[in-house]
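Encode chain A's predicted structure.
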Amino acid sequence: MATEAGCGVTTEYEVRPLGAWLEPITNPRRGSHVFKASWSDTLTLLGREMEYLDATRIVLQLDVGAGQIRRDGMMHANAKVNFPGVRISFESRYGPLTYATDMHECQYRLSKLNGWQANVRAIALALEALRAVDRYGVTRRGEQYTGWTAIAAEPAAMTREQAAEFLAHWSGLARSEVVMSPSAAWRRAARKAHPDAGGDADTFARLTRARELLERAA
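Encoded structure for chain A:
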């Protein structure tokens, strides 16, 4: 579990590889320069919102390989994040929640945040906005979060091409090999993604869905 401090607020999270991006891809994206805050400020905001939600087991998924993540859950100093999309998942008082966006990218060298950091800030701001709904006494049981609970509970739908890409990423096989033998690719991928092997339930469920989709299409 990684620990970073921002303006006196400590945020604990674990970095994991993003894998295939199954959400709609934003095009064009906004520049990260629209945010004037620093990464430290962003961590402060995120940490505060996590505290309000009693968040635990915070997972930050980024477009990095497993070899670019240190044992303590932080990225190596020379790690490079190519695709700016991020996914943040955590347990909360309202159940498991997941938020993802690729809305921003770094377009100017003087931007305070790079692309993925700007997308983390966007999620933190969205959480702040959702919490603000409670100020007016309309919601009392976190109803504004229920739409996001389903994201973590149900794997996103995917096309055949996305299924092949997802299995190829996790199995290390070429897409042509995955299409020819989805079950073999799934077995290889499951060794890394199964919860008992240190993976997470959401990724494992998506891998199984991808295998089933490709087997039906064969």
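The longest helix spans residues 115-132.
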